[in-house]
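Hypothesis: this fold can be encoded by more than one sequence.
Test: take the structure tokens below, design a sequence, compare later.
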């Protein structure tokens, strides 16, 4: 069983307690010194991983577009996943230059193109600010005000940190709800460019059929480059910008990895929920996961149908379809995993044991006698409104025009509440943000899709029980949703993508957007959302305090280290290249190869692959990238590391800290990782670096990539 590292804050809280190491986790970096990675298999110094006083592997890591990436050359070259670049490739594609289908290779710096919508975020430093936030709420017991005070203090700390150093973006991340907070300082690079994207039949081989599935044969990799101004400062895309020089970049090991070898990952895992009580997991299983997965599946069917009518519309919606497909299959895997592991009842059993522990200890009982009952009651209250909240959120977000109208409504409301210089400043700064947000939505806007998705959400809203009605919908009475929805969308001035941007370019005294039917409808939705948000804020304030107490009691009960849930901050996880037996009579081997691509191959659909792969395989032309015991080029591999969303694109490194793969997925059985991790079935999937190099050299003749990576092309 793997050892684990406690969190930055948890270790401080438990400094005077003798504890055993837990068996799962994504570890904050400040605690590496408390784990014996050498014993686990690491062959370099642990200070080579993270050294706050010098260069280390951490300096090679970037967060790019919500994924992880890593610098692999001194000239700002970044490797990440194909699916992490997908949106930017879509925006760069046209029916005439379809980079999404055909791939993209820039054989010179001049040919590299802007990766629209992508920026890089590099972790510079962190600081525990828990005491400062605790002090801000110490004298206040009002739940709603507690959340406001916490948010106000966070805003203050962020402004202070950003004022101290130009070019720094600060964020305060909540490590344990209501209890521990860390201020992270990030350097932002605004100019990111596409360098090498494999063709879709490689980068997305297997499509949604293979998503979250093993065996896997997807070449899920891409290369980008970070650029800065000539003086080294962050700057938006400009011709005179120069490649960024990272403090550190990763060395590629073209020999790859073998079964049972030690490996580790550095990355930015998104969100996990392992420290939540049974009531929260039950809400996920009964409410959120089934509704959203079913809705997204239907929405994707509609977008695929509307895309068939026009190739440009298909390109516009490709990234949107891919994102929703990824979520819906992930959610279906979670539902299956929750049912298979009976996690709700396992959590409930643990909560009952914690309640008994409280009752057996006089001091605990004095302070926390009703803790578990209060948590259950709060979630029960939340669940009574769960379906309305889900429908209202999706109603606002599903149709792009309504989403834009909702943002415009909020912008106008805020403007109306301000005066003088404050109003002018808000208009200037937030008007630009609104225009950019709308621009991104218009980029994937298809009128027929908007109509279908909005009509469905209106029907869902109308079908809600009386106790959960969305008043903006029920106020309409009995209407023909087909004609009403078309009229609503077609009659709005927002139908013109240039209208809003043109208005926002005007001086404040000339800015004027008359409310049409769509904006009035958005306003009605916003008015109810404001009322609901007030109640939610009160519940969040109560939960904030209850979960802080829950963590404290759970620590005392378990007498063991457990780490904060993932929250998109930099973490490390380690383990071994290893197969798995996720079900009876089933064994997953840890490597796949080119033969598997050919065996799966079809002439159309998800399993189309370039003919050249078959030709090269028949000739056994594997170059330097064959795995001897397979007599094949390894495509993907499995390992028992603890990963989650956000780890996409994370470098998989060997015992020497060399890059041997790029993480891109988990197995279907491991989608439950967000709620619980188990070595027996939790497996992550990476694309083998040997396949990356083989494709670059043999399929796309991109020897320049190998040379920049320091890999011999002979």
């Amino acid at each position: 069983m793997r050892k684990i590292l406690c969190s930055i804050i948890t270790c401080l809280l438990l400094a005077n307690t003798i504890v055993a190491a837990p068996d799962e986790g994504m570890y904050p970096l400040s605690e590496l010194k408390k784990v014996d990675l050498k014993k686990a298999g690491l062959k370099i110094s642990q200070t080579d991983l993270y050294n706050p006083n010098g260069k280390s592997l951490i300096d090679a890591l970037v967060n790019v577009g919500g994924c992880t990436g890593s610098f692999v050359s001194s000239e700002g070259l970044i490797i990440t996943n194909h699916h992490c670049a997908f949106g930017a490739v879509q925006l760069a594609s046209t029916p005439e230059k379809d980079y999404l289908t055909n791939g993209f290779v820039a054989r010179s710096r001049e040919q590299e193109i802007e990766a629209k919508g992508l920026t890089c975020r590099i972790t510079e430093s962190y600081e525990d600010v828990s005491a400062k936030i605790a002090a801000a709420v110490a004298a206040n017991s009002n739940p709603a005000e507690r959340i406001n005070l916490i948010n106000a203090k966070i805003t203050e700390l962020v402004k202070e940190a950003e004022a101290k150093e130009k070019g720094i973006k600060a964020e305060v991340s909540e490590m344990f709800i209501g209890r521990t907070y860390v201020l992270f300082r990030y350097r932002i690079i605004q100019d990111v460019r596409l360098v090498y994207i494999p063709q879709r039949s490689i980068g997305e081989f297997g499509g949604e059929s293979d998503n979250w599935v093993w065996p896997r044969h997807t070449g899920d990799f891409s290369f980008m480059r970070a650029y800065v101004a000539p003086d080294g400062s962050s700057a938006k895309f400009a011709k005179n910008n120069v490649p960024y020089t990272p403090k550190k970049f990763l060395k590629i090991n073209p020999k790859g990895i073998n079964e049972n070898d030690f490996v580790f990952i550095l990355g930015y895992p998104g969100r996990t929920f392992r420290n939540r009580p049974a009531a929260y997991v039950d809400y996920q299983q009964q409410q959120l996961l089934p509704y959203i997965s079913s809705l997204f599946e239907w929405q994707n069917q509609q977008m695929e149908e509307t895309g068939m009518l026009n190739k440009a519309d298909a390109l516009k919606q490709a990234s949107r379809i891919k994102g929703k497909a990824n979520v819906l299959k992930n959610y279906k895997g979670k539902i299956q995993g929750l049912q298979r592991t009976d996690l709700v009842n396992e959590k409930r059993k643990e909560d009952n044991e914690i309640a008994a522990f409280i009752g057996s200890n006089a001091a605990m009982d004095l302070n926390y006698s009703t803790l578990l009952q209060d948590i259950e009651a709060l979630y029960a209250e939340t669940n009574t409104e769960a379906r309305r909240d889900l429908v209202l959120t999706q109603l606002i977000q599903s149709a792009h025009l309504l989403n834009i109208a909702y943002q415009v409504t909020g912008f106008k409301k805020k403007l109306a509440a301000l005066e003088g210089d404050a109003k002018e400043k808000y208009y200037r700064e937030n008007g630009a943000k609104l225009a950019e947000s709308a621009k991104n939505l218009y980029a994937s806007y298809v009128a027929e899709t908007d109509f279908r998705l909005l009509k469905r959400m209106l029907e869902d809203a109308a079908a809600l029980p009386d106790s959960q009605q969305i008043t903006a919908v029920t106020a309409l009475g009995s209407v023909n949703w087909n004609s009403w929805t078309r009229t609503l969308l077609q009659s709005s001035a927002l139908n013109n993508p240039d209208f809003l941007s043109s208005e926002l370019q005007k001086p404040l005294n000339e800015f004027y957007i008359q409310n049409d039917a769509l904006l009035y409808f958005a306003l009605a939705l916003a008015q109810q959302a404001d009322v609901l948000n007030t109640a939610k804020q009160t519940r969040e304030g109560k939960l904030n305090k209850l979960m802080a107490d829950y963590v404290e009691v759970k620590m005392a009960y378990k007498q063991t280290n457990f780490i904060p849930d993932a929250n998109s901050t930099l973490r490390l996880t380690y383990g071994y290249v290893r197969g798995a037996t996720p079900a009876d009579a089933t064994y997953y081997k840890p490597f796949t190869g080119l033969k598997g691509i050919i065996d799966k191959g079809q002439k159309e659909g998800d399993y189309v692959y370039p003919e050249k792969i078959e030709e090269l395989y028949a000739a056994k032309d594997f170059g330097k990238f064959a795995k001897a015991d397979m007599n094949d080029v390894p495509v993907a591999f499995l390992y028992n590391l603890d990963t989650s969303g956000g780890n996409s694109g994370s470098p998989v490194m060997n015992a020497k800290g060399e890059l041997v793969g790029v993480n891109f997925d988990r197995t279907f059985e491991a989608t439950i990782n967000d709620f619980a991790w188990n070595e027996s079935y939790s497996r992550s999937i990476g694309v083998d670096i040997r396949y990356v190099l083989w494709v670059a050299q043999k399929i796309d003749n991109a020897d320049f990539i190998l040379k920049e990576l320091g890999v011999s092309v002979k």
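The chain has 25 helices and 18 strands. The longest strand covers residues 180-189.
Hypothesis status: open.
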